[in-house]
Design goal:
Length: about 220
């Protein structure tokens, strides 16, 4: 019974995060930080069933870099990336709650970094809000020209991969590589080639479907 209640609670939090804005999600977590822990315990139990955790893909890539990089991990969860590679790279970890010493709590549409100071931005299963494109625009702001944007997202969320990439490129990026070989998630690597436009022209929320678990 307790497990069923935990599962129902996780599904409610998950659905709320996918169907609201980053600002409202941040306010919700500030009002009740325990929600963050409840969500991530449920999230971890889901990802543990996957053959590969996508954050490990990005960790491996960063470990292979010979340059010391400045990295922004957006929607970092428990900040596994920072905990693993922070001796090799400078990692800024951002999420809705400062769950541990690595994390700065904020809405990832407005992170406390100056323009053009980051070499790599990572979104690992973190494009959750209905205004996710604002997270991408913030990534563009903090990245230097030529910097890398790395995205891993649940593949079933992406309504049209071509349209999704097209919108990312409209925000000042150029696709360098995509990998859709994993049945659970897709990985995209893009390069910043210019600034994001001053305003959005199209409604982009339908490019990523909310990841909603079936009720039992």
């Amino acid at each position: 019974m307790q497990q069923k209640l935990k599962g129902a609670r996780f599904r409610w939090i998950n659905e709320t995060l996918y169907t609201t804005t980053g600002t409202k999600a941040y306010d919700m977590m500030r009002n009740d930080p325990k929600i963050f822990e409840e969500y991530h315990q449920g999230f971890i139990s889901q990802v543990e069933k996957w053959p590969v955790n996508p954050v490990d893909v990005f960790i491996k890539q960063l470990e292979a870099s010979k340059k010391r990089l400045v990295v922004a991990d957006m929607g970092c969860g428990e900040a596994k990336l920072a905990a693993t590679v922070s001796k090799q790279h400078k990692v800024h970890s951002f999420d809705l709650v400062a769950y541990n010493k690595y994390i700065t709590a904020c809405n990832i549409a407005k992170v406390p970094l100056k323009n053009g100071v980051v070499d790599v931005v990572v979104f690992c299963l973190a494009l959750m809000g209905t205004d996710f494109i604002e997270f991408i625009r913030e990534a563009n702001r903090i990245l230097r020209t030529g910097g890398e944007l790395k995205i891993a997202e649940v593949i079933s969320r992406i309504s049209d991969i071509g349209a999704f990439i097209c919108e990312l490129e409209k925000q000042g990026f150029k696709l360098a590589r995509k990998d859709t070989s994993n049945k659970m998630f897709a990985v995209f690597q893009l390069t910043k080639v210019g600034e994001a436009p001053s305003s959005l022209i199209n409604d982009t929320k339908d490019l990523l479907k909310p990841c909603i678990y079936k009720r039992r």
